[in-house]
């Protein structure tokens, strides 16, 4: 948030959605009670370094990182906050003093802090653990607030696709091979991920809409949501209809893949370096847009989601449960989760980051991608995202550039490499985010052999891993001899 917005919050004082804590050298113990209360009510902001009276005292600079780390750790510790939560934490300087701002989103779930349930009122954080009516009302409010929690009592485990559960585990294991979800069966997973719930208004229990959308058979999804679909459309030549189209009516995990493939098929991916690190601009931008479209869509609204590629822009639309209206200012934007359980699954499989980071990445890289254009994100009953394009560049230009790089690599290392290693280098040159599992399928050897070969290629300094195993990408080393500026045509 900007300084002026923080000053307005401080001037307004503490209320249902704002809490002050001094926290000069450590996080107050009751911070987590407030986090729990905000999660259970309407969300809010916690400002550390501000007294109860609104006086800015600041957080001791030597303890800022320690406090932030402590809060992140506790928020992800089920013994402190259960279910755990991802928080947006920022540092803001006001009057030469550092304030830590914690944004707590409204949650679709009922949270506990050290096994106590807290709710928020004008008087502060209320322990309602033993207030039966208040707890029941809280559960009913959550059940009705997020459509992803809609219960389908007649949906059975046979209505899901077992291969999707296995695929989810494979994607999780790439990031965390000791994740607890890897050790449970499908039914246990659905319950632990809160994809099986009880409707406290009707007393019925069963699998939820989120479970259906993530892991359901296509026939199951279409039976419950007859209008459900996402249209991917290319409209450059035939403006009355389309040049290419993919009508997607499947689960969210495979919907993401098909939308990303449609983008890769029709949009350029210019070579771009940020310092000495290659940034895959196309993936960086559209990964966030497609994830946000699938995660935050209002699925009980029959309006179909659309991704339309035109000559000079990409337009993405989806039904929305709006928290505001009009163009979003990234410097004043407070993220609101629309389907937090779906969002959590996407984060665990590596297809989304913490709340709010996707927005920052879109604004950060879209201008570079479009050679100066500005993205537009418009909040309303229909959420619209517009990414400008350079109409002089097509996907074919990118393919040509990629092939030139591949030829150079091949000529340089033909004598030293096996055929499988050459294939690995070519595939990495075309897709820097490619995984060992996909390489295994395309090269035709086991994942273990892929990893053995990539290790040898790294030893020969022919490829390198940029960033972490979780969030990084591959770089073919001869690429460093190419231009260090974005591709211009």
What does it look like?
The protein is an alpha+beta fold and 489 residues long. It has 16 helices and 22 strands. A hairpin with a 3-residue loop joins strand 16 and strand 17 (313-319). Helix 9 packs antiparallel against helix 10, helix 13 runs antiparallel to helix 14 and helix 15 packs across helix 16. The chain is globular, with a radius of gyration of 24 Å. The model is unreliable at 398-415 and 478-489 (pLDDT under 50).
Number of helical stretches of at least 4 residues:
16
Q: How much of the sequence is in beta strands?
A: 15-25%
Give the overall form.
globular
Low-confidence stretches: 398-415, 478-489
Q: Which architecture of the largest domain does the CATH hierarchy give at level 2? A: 2-Layer Sandwich
What is the CATH third-level topology name of the largest domain? Answer: Heat Shock Protein 90
Outline the biggest β-sheet. Answer: 7 strands, mixed
């Amino acid at each position: 948030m900007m300084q002026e917005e923080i000053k307005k919050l401080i001037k307004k004082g503490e209320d249902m959605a704002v809490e002050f804590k001094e926290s000069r050298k450590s996080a107050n113990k009751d911070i987590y009670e407030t986090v729990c209360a905000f999660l259970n009510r309407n969300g809010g902001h916690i400002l550390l370094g501000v007294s109860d009276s609104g006086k800015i005292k600041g957080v001791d600079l030597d303890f800022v990182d320690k406090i932030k780390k402590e809060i992140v750790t506790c928020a992800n510790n089920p013994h402190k906050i259960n279910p755990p939560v991802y928080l947006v934490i920022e540092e803001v300087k006001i009057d030469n003093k550092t304030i830590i701002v914690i944004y707590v989103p409204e949650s679709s779930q009922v949270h506990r802090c050290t096994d106590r349930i807290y709710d928020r009122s004008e008087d502060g954080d209320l322990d309602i653990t033993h207030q039966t009516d208040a707890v029941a009302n809280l559960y009913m409010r959550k059940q009705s607030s997020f459509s992803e929690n809609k219960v389908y009592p007649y949906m059975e485990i046979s209505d899901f696709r077992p291969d999707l559960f296995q695929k989810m585990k494979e994607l999780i294991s790439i990031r965390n091979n000791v994740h607890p979800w890897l050790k449970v069966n499908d039914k246990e997973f659905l319950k632990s991920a809160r994809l099986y719930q009880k409707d406290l208004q009707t007393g019925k229990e069963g699998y939820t809409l989120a479970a259906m959308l993530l892991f359901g058979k296509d026939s199951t999804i279409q039976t419950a949501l007859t209008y459900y679909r996402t249209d991917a459309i290319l409209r450059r030549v035939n403006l009355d209809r389309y040049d290419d189209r993919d009508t997607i009516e499947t689960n969210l995990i495979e919907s993401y893949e098909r939308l990303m493939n449609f983008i890769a098929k029709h949009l350029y991916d210019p070579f771009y370096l940020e310092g000495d690190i290659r940034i895959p601009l196309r993936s960086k931008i559209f990964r966030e847009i497609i994830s946000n479209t699938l995660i935050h869509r209002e699925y009980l609204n029959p309006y179909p989601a659309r991704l339309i590629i035109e000559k000079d822009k990409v337009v993405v639309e989806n039904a929305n449960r709006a928290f505001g209206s009009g163009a979003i200012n990234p410097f004043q934007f407070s993220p609101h989760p629309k389907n937090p359980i779906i969002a959590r699954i996407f984060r665990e499989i590596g297809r989304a980051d913490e709340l709010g980071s996707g927005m920052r990445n879109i604004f950060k890289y879209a201008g570079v991608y479009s050679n100066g254009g500005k993205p537009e994100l418009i909040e309303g009953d229909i959420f619209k995202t517009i990414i400008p394009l350079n109409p002089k560049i097509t996907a074919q230009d990118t393919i040509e550039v990629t092939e030139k790089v591949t030829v150079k690599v091949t000529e340089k290392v033909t004598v030293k490499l096996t055929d499988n290693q050459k294939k690995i280098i070519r595939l990495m040159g075309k897709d820097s985010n490619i995984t060992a599992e996909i390489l295994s399928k395309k090269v035709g050897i086991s994942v273990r052999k892929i990893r053995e070969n990539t290790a040898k290629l790294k030893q020969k300094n022919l490829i390198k891993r940029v960033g972490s195993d979780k969030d990084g990408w591959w770089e073919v080393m001869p690429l460093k001899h190419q231009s260090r500026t974005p591709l211009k045509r």
